[in-house]
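Box 3.1 — From sequence to structure: Transcriptional regulator GlxA family with amidase domain
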Amino acid sequence: MGSSAALPPPDLSPPDLSAAGFSTVAVLMFDRIPLFEASVPIAVFGERRDDRPDFDVRVISAEGGPVRTDAGMTLAAPYDLDAVDGADLVVVPTWRRPTDGGPPPDEALEALRRAHAGGATVVSLCLGTFVLAATGLLDGRPATTHWRYAGLLASMYPRIEVRPDVLYVDEGDILTSAGSTGGIDLCLHLVRRSHGAQAANSIARGLVTPPHRAGGQAQYIDHPVQAPATGDPFGDTLDWALRHLDRELSVDGLAARALMSRRTFDRRFRQATGTTPAQWLLHQRVLHAQRLLETTDEPVERVARSAGFASAVALRPHFRRQVGVSPTAYRETFGMAGQAR
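Predicted structure (token representation):
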């Protein structure tokens, strides 16, 4: 009897949708959700034109019946959870605020787990990340959500590596995005990843939005300068430092102003701010530069010196590391000229 080569084991891994593309999109709507975020995947995938891929978009009521939005409007979703089966892409566009009510319903969580196990790409936009987190699919993975709720996500689901400073996280079969228009960025990324840049650019032009935004979510996070407690030498020293960021400030000099030894000052500083004096000063200088870029038309070189940096060249790497974009790019978006545009 002749011999024959053993057959290889069957490939049971999920299909590579990044190469094969996707055509059927299931969008799960939950009760009391924000209207704008809920509309994002429908706006990106729903319009049909000759120069765009033709997606079959299924809008699903994840909890059954009409979907009430947080604006008081009621939406009639034509599909129920059974429509998740067979979808190539399953999107949770948003979720009600995590502090409003209980967890997502078990039926919806099981539908998401089943879709992922069946090879679908599963996506959450904005607060929808809390729904994916409840399924357990994000355990051990990086993920993002709206920066305002990133801390809450990390505390509720400590097994997730929360990245609050990015617009979206692409893990191949699971993707998550930051808030509001970050969902548009992720949906366009999905089109670009599976159907090419031309298709994504066509959709972006129709939405009058950039096909790709530089930087991450960090440039949109508001970091208010906290007023130090006054009435004691330590609080008065921090307040003085905030008013004199343009000067050369040394930690030893601040400790002397606070009438403390350097060791006591460092210990008190970490207790009050959670960081070191040097790190705090650098952070406050970048924040001050941000405010000057937003509210003045001074050259970046002068902004840098007003914030305590030797030059614009010295400011740039710290600004980019903390904010996510260069000072010039930040001013173009948030400066007075950008606001006028």
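Summary of the box: Residues 1-20, 218-225 have pLDDT under 50 and may be disordered.
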